[in-house]
Structures are given as structure tokens and as C-alpha cells.
Design a protein that fits this description.
By secondary structure, the protein is mainly α. The protein has eight helices and two strands. The two termini are 90 Å apart.
């Protein structure tokens, strides 16, 4: 029912499994020493491949124990034959391991090629999308230019149609002065009229407004009633008290009068 809490995280306190020192007796070969090459993270904890390696090592030790001694020519020939068979098995097993490794590398290569093709497809799709957008933008600009040119040509055709017979139209002064959008009231700059050139003619220039002496003279000529104003407070419409508040009865009478009106 009790718990403890340390000052360190599990990741900081976690270490590799402890491997104690050992001493081998003379004349004995423990089977456990065959796994001395396996360490934590490199073969441990043991998986299917490690178990298969342990089984092959056991089979090889059993095969070495079953080899006949080299005390006669027949045993020597038999021993060589068994060793050749074992060598062929070892080469066959090695070829299987190489094929398995090649298949794994081939799968990794296929995944890399597939990923590269997908990335290339994405790049191509983005490039096509950008190209399509640029072409659409150019198409819209071209359509706008065609519409602008069309409107311009239509105005030219309408203007030419008015004078189709090439008759000389006399100036109608009455029509020009009745039409406030004509050249009389609103002349165009392209025919040589620039309204900003004579803009100073409309500026009001007065001695009494533009100079200090004129302002003083204008102020002296004004009567006192204009300079010194007297404001009279309006009389209240309702009855008020001395403190300036309206009585409730007066407010009620004013509301009734407004409603009656």
C-alpha cells in the first residue's frame, strides 16, 4: 500500500542488463558461452533468427561429435565426405541468407523508388497547376484587351455612322447651350482647353480679409452688438423649484398637454 518516488526519471536510471564475470573450469565447455557474442540490443532479447542460429550451432556441435576419428583410411575418407556434405549445406544456407538480404534490399529500393515517383508526381502536378494558372491569367488579360478593343472599335463605328453621308453639320449654338455636357460648359483638354491655367481668376482677393490692417479696420467698423454677444437663457415651459428641478405635477401636466396635442 506504500509507494516511493525518486529524484530521477526512469530513462536516466535505466541501464543495460548486468553481465557478471565468470570462470570456466578446465575441461568443460558450457553451451551458454556460445551466446557470449550476443549483447543487449544486438541479439538480446533473442528473436526467431537468434533461436535458429542457436539450433544450427547445436546441430553443428552434434555433427562434430559424430565425425569418425582419423585412425584409418576408410574413416578418413568417410570424414572427408561428411565434411564436404556439411560444407555444401553451409554454402546453401549462406546462399539463402544472401537471397533473403537481397530481397530485403530490393524491397527497400522499391519503396524508395515509389516514394521518389510520388514526390516527382507531386512536383509535376504543382508545375502543371502553376502553368495552367499562368495560362488562365494570360487568357483573361487577352480577353479583357479584346473587349476593350471591341468597345473602342464600336465607338468609332458609331461615330462614323453618324456622318455616313459625309455631310457638313452646322454648329447649333442653341443645342450646345441647352446641353450642359457640351463643349461650351465642359470643354475637353485634347482640343486645347486647360481649365487649371486660369484657376486664379476665381480666387477672391479682398483687402479686408487678406491683410491684418484690413481686418483691424473691419473689426473697428462693426458695432458692439456684433462683437459682444448677449445670450438670454430661455424661460422654462414648466414650473420649477428654486433649486432648478421640475415638479412632478408640472411634468405630468406637460405630458398630458403633449398627448392631447
Amino acid at each position: 500500500t506504500l509507494g516511493t518516488q525518486t529524484d530521477y526519471r526512469d530513462g536516466e536510471a535505466q541501464t543495460d542488463p548486468y553481465s557478471p564475470e565468470y570462470i570456466v573450469r578446465s575441461g568443460s565447455v558450457p553451451e551458454l558461452l556460445t551466446l557470449a557474442t550476443l549483447t543487449w540490443g544486438r541479439g538480446l532479447p533473442a528473436g526467431l533468427e537468434e533461436l535458429a542460429m542457436i539450433d544450427r550451432a547445436r546441430e553443428k556441435r552434434a555433427w562434430e561429435a559424430s565425425l569418425p576419428p582419423m585412425d584409418s583410411p576408410s574413416n578418413t575418407a568417410k570424414r572427408l565426405k561428411m565434411m564436404e556434405e556439411m560444407e555444401r549445406k553451409e554454402w546453401a544456407f549462406r546462399e539463402q541468407e544472401i537471397e533473403k538480404l537481397q530481397k530485403a534490399r530490393l524491397e527497400v529500393l522499391k519503396k524508395m523508388l515509389r516514394r521518389r515517383e510520388e514526390n516527382q508526381d507531386k512536383v509535376d502536378a504543382k508545375r502543371l497547376c502553376d502553368h495552367w494558372q499562368n495560362r488562365q491569367r494570360a487568357r483573361e488579360e487577352k480577353i479583357k484587351k479584346i473587349q476593350h478593343d471591341c468597345a473602342l472599335m464600336l465607338r468609332k463605328l458609331i461615330a462614323n455612322r453618324k456622318n455616313m453621308m459625309e455631310k457638313l453639320d452646322r454648329r447649333d449654338i442653341i443645342k450646345e447651350y441647352t446641353d450642359f455636357s457640351s463643349q461650351t460648359y465642359a470643354p475637353l483638354s485634347r482640343i486645347g482647353f486647360f481649365p487649371d491655367n486660369n484657376s486664379d481668376c476665381y480666387v477672391v482677393k479682398n483687402f479686408y480679409l487678406n491683410t491684418f490692417a484690413g481686418l483691424c479696420e473691419l473689426e473697428a467698423s462693426l458695432p458692439d452688438s456684433v462683437i459682444q454677444l448677449k445670450i438670454k437663457a430661455p424661460k422654462p415651459k414648466c414650473i420649477i423649484t428654486k433649486t432648478g428641478f421640475i415638479k412632478r405635477s408640472a411634468r405630468l401636466e406637460a405630458d398630458l398637454a403633449q398627448v392631447h396635442q
